[in-house]
Design brief:
The complex is a heterodimer.
Chain A (H helix, E strand, L loop, with lengths): L21 E2 L1 E3 L2 E3 L6 E5 L6 E6 L3 H20 L2 H17 L1 H12 L3 H22 L17 E5 L5 H14 L3 E5 L6 H13 L6 E3 L4 H9 L5 E5 L2 H11 L5 E5 L5 E4 L5 H13 L11 E5 L3 H12 L20 H16 L3 E3 L15 E4 L6 H4 L6 E7 L2 H8 L7 E5 L3 H10 L4 E4 L18 E2 L22
Parallel strand pairs in A: 1-5, 6-7, 6-9, 7-8, 9-10, 11-12, 11-16, 12-15, 14-15, 16-17
Antiparallel strand pairs in A: 2-3, 4-5, 10-18, 13-14
Chain B lengths: L28 E5 L5 E6 L3 H20 L2 H17 L1 H12 L3 H21 L3 H5 L1 E3 L5 E9 L2 E5 L7 H12 L3 E5 L6 H11 L8 E4 L3 H10 L5 E3 L5 H11 L5 E3 L14 H4 L2 E9 L11
Parallel strand pairs in B: 5-6, 5-8, 6-7, 8-9
Antiparallel strand pairs in B: 1-2, 3-4, 4-10
Helix pairs in contact in B: 1-8, 2-4, 3-4, 4-6, 8-9
Classes of the chains: A alpha/beta, B alpha/beta.
């Protein structure tokens, strides 16, 4: 929307980051080629520019990484907690020091706006390591019995939507509790994990404590199925989560899953409309809606539907979509062609099923993967866009008349990760929050994260919690009766 | 006719589902014997349909039971202990028969079982403080993490410990507000079926605990695959069955508690059997601000 107040470009400089033309696997403290010699390309989703060539790990490479982690486990788990803590504090500090470089890198590889990587991802990554560093020598006081023991080697598979943050959520608690890890970053966003390997080197982390194996779903499947891992932690789609749950059935492997969602953002008629609009926008357009806890279903009290929608549309018309490295960009690129195709298909289906589609006037760049912010109104609970996780900038708007109806509709999903409540009435917040079957409920705010706060789902959004004291449990052996371990 | 010669009245053992005592809808029974092979009773041989009916009953009861105050749940569980104490002789007899124990050993088991109910009765209004709490968020927000019951839990009760083991897996599930479908020990189901009679007279709402007897594998399979069951405790499943059930449970991502070797059910339990069937909900609130000029006192 051109106007007299058009913004001048304000791109963040790429010069702070130096991406090598190719990367190997990080195993036992060294970068090595994949055994099969296969590589894949990682591209910038906003331009389709090839950023680097990455080694594709196969089962043999995974086995090598698991053996390195197993070997490192003995010494790492025997270190005094205070020493493990210091390594993690070092990592947290180095991340802070290198945060601009990592933010630019993440924006290049993922396509999300620099203002998000700079102001959300990176500060949270450093904070997460800092938080769990402090736990390493205090585990006796964490409520899991005296002298709680680590599990061993953790196999961790993470998604592409918050590459470095998901790495932090996985690696920080695992290392703090004395486990060693083999982590597989997502196929489309491997770079920040490989830069993290360099941070481990700078921090002097013992070899084999952190191993990074890159590749596609086959690499992840090989890791999850490896007989010598003791723990599987996965963040990603519910379909893959179920497959992993089947794979580890009958083994000793402890499992935590952080999966999909179809979060309800409930707006009551007494809500502060302007704040609610900001919260709705943040809830579904943060990170292009590629967020498992996105508020992708807007439930509006019928009496304020028209007023709210008008405000919302006006606000959406001011969102700036474009170069993710531009500091004024609100909406960046979709992470991959594959994800763009999925969003496109589901949105088209919404239209075909009779929901009313709306997007602000919005010019999309000619190269790269882009999808305009999209609203669906006249949505019923039976519509695909109200049921399936779209994982894109697509909001489905439904209405309700009573709080009971709002709760019933909010819970009418196999998922149970997040929800939002907008009302000025305190007792209503508490009553509704109490009835929502979701692991995270934001009242009069949305998409807030903090390392001290447990995060994770009910029902088919997975199980286990990441963050806070609760996040330690995923990496500790169960206590026996008598409270001993 | 002297008391010695009096012909006793046998009990028809029935299922406990939705607060009622139905026979298996299949009309089937199986023979239950004591440790030496002597006939004790015919127990209902539950069908898949019985299992599904029990899920419906457990789901119906979940809202009320999970919504009850923790204090109220504690009172009711304590009431269970009171009722059991009064029926102690009956359970000593049943446990002695079921497990081939001397009367004094069986009495020990029953005593420990009653004490187990008391232990969990006391937990109902404490677990939230132990595993939940406020989080020191780096920002102008207040948030609180609280445990909530997972929902409907299928419990494969231990095969050997027919009463203490049974209660040790059932009580932690319902103490926190879940509802349960319990598959009694296949060989020794009678104490479990009699427990239903105790629960029915202890103010435990119908459907909170549902007890099925029969072939463990036959009943557990439909429960593990059931889309309206939220979790499963595999305590009494052997290795092969446990794996099969865990695979089926993945279809709707049930929380699975795998079988663990238990040498001694009388040892004081930790809280793991409760936390296995608890979700953590974190609710965030903006704290607002009253401006910079706060009181310095």
């Amino acid at each position: 929307m051109a106007s007299a107040f058009e913004y001048a470009p304000a791109p963040e400089s790429r010069s702070v980051v130096d991406i090598a033309p190719s990367y190997g696997l990080f195993i036992d403290g060294e970068f090595t080629e994949a055994a099969g010699g296969k590589v894949f390309k990682t591209v910038s989703p906003s331009t389709e520019e090839v950023l680097s060539e990455i080694a594709q790990a196969d089962a043999e490479d995974v086995d090598r990484a698991v053996r390195a982690a197993r070997k490192a486990f003995e010494k790492w788990s025997a270190l005094p907690g205070s020493e493990r803590a210091k390594y993690l504090f070092r990592i947290a500090r180095i991340i802070q020091e290198r945060s601009r470089e990592l933010a630019v890198l993440e924006t290049l590889d993922n396509g999300k706006p620099i203002k998000e990587t700079r102001d959300a991802d990176l500060p949270l990554v450093a904070a997460h390591f800092f938080y769990y560093a402090g736990w390493a020598d205090k585990l006796d006081h964490a409520g899991f019995g005296r002298n709680p023991r680590p599990l061993g080697v953790a196999g961790q598979v993470i998604p592409w939507n918050f590459p470095l943050l998901m790495l932090a959520w996985k690696i920080a608690p695992a290392l703090a509790t004395g486990n060693t890890v083999v982590l597989k970053p997502a196929e489309t966003t491997p770079l920040s994990a490989l830069f993290f390997a360099d941070i481990c080197r700078q921090a002097g982390l013992p070899k084999g404590v952190v191993n990074i194996v890159t590749g596609d779903g086959r690499t992840g499947a090989a890791l999850v199925a490896h007989p010598d891992i003791d723990k599987v932690a996965f963040t990603g789609s519910t379909a893959v989560g179920k497959e992993i749950a089947r794979t580890v059935a009958g083994t000793r492997k402890k499992l935590t899953l952080e999966l999909g969602g179809k979060g309800a953002n409930i707006v009551f008629d007494d809500a502060p409309i302007d704040q609610a609009v900001e919260g709705i926008v943040n809830g579904i357009f943060f990170n292009q809606g590629q967020v498992c806890c996105a508020g992708s279903r807007l439930l509006v009290q019928e009496s304020i539907h028209d007023e709210l929608l008008e405000s919302l549309k006006r606000r959406l018309s001011t969102l700036r979509l474009g170069d993710p490295l531009d500091k004024n960009t609100d909406i960046g690129a979709i992470n991959s062609a594959e994800q763009l195709a999925r969003i496109t298909t589901l949105a088209d289906q919404g239209e075909a099923e009779g929901a009313e589609r709306w997007s602000p006037a919005c010019e999309l760049p000619t190269s790269g993967y882009w999808f305009a912010p999209t609203l669906f109104t006249n949505v019923t609970q039976a519509h695909t866009v109200a049921r399936d996780e779209i994982f894109g900038p697509v909001l489905s708007v439904l209405t309700f008349r009573t709080p009971d109806e709002a709760v019933a509709k909010a819970n009418n999903t196999p998922y149970g990760l997040s929800a939002g409540i907008w009302t000025e009435k305190g007792s209503r917040i508490l009553a509704v929050a109490n009835k929502l079957r979701a692991g995270v409920v934001w009242s009069n705010t949305f998409n807030k994260f903090d390392p001290t706060s447990p995060f994770g789902g009910y029902k088919e959004s997975g199980f286990g919690r990441e963050g806070g004291r609760h996040g330690l449990e995923a990496y500790l052996a169960p206590s026996s009766p008598e409270g001993e371990r | 006719m002297s008391a010695v010669d009096r012909l006793s009245v046998f009990k028809t053992y029935k299922l406990y589902v939705g607060g009622k005592f139905p026979r298996s809808e299949s009309g089937r029974v199986y023979e239950v014997t004591d440790a030496k092979g002597k006939w004790l009773a015919n127990a209902p041989l539950s069908s898949r349909k019985d299992a599904r009916d029990a899920v419906v009953a457990a789901r119906k009861a979940f809202g009320g039971w999970s919504g009850a105050t923790a204090y109220n749940r504690g009172q009711i569980l304590y009431r269970v202990a009171e009722m059991l104490e009064g029926r102690k002789a009956q359970f000593v007899h049943e446990v002695a028969d079921a497990e081939g124990l001397s009367k004094s050993k069986a009495a020990e088991q029953v005593g420990a079982t009653i004490d187990r109910w008391v232990w969990y009765a006391g937990w109902t209004d404490k677990i939230a403080q132990v595993v939940g709490g406020g989080n020191p968020v780096a920002g102008p927000y207040f948030n609180l993490s609280s445990p909530e019951p997972t929902g409907v839990v299928a419990v494969v009760a231990p095969q050997e410990s027919s009463f203490l083991g049974l209660v040790s897996v059932v009580a932690p599930v319902i103490a926190t507000g879940n509802t349960a479908i319990v598959i009694a020990s296949e060989r020794s189901p009678l104490p479990a079926l009699s427990l239903g009679e105790v629960l029915a007279t202890s103010d435990v709402p119908g459907g909170v605990v549902n007890v099925l007897s029969g072939r463990t594998a036959e009943i557990a399979a439909p429960l593990a695959a059931h889309q309206d069951v939220n979790a499963i405790d595999l305590a009494g499943a052997d290795e092969a069955l446990a794996k099969e059930l865990e695979i089926a449970a993945a279809d709707n991502l049930k929380r699975v508690l795998r079988p663990q070797p238990v040498d001694d059910w009388s040892a004081t339990p930790g809280i793991d059997r409760m936390t296995a069937f608890l979700e953590t909900k974190t609710v965030w609130h903006p704290t607002g601000s009253l401006g910079a000029s706060g009181s310095s006192y």
